[in-house]
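Justification of computing resources. Each target in the renewal requires a structure prediction run like the one illustrated here; the chain below, 90 residues long, is used simply to show the kind of job we budget for.
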Amino acid sequence: MDWKIFASTFILIFLAELGDKTQLAVIALSAKEKTPLTIFVSAIFGFALATLVAIIIGSLGAKYLPVDFIQKIAAVAFIVIGVLILLNKI
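Resulting structure tokens:
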């Protein structure tokens, strides 16, 4: 295992997810349902599945497209989603 990649990925994901809509949804569910262990485990599995999908798409995409192109597409998608959220479209 490459510990440098592990640490940088962990820190990036941890900081990016703080205050994210997913975290706020988990807070709301925890307050409402009063079953923190179930919510914790299911949130981990949900995030793990979403991450697995992203890894598969990224790995397959890298075989057919230049990494710079994938990064630019991801950046544009991120900006578009941000603008749509800002405009209350999603």
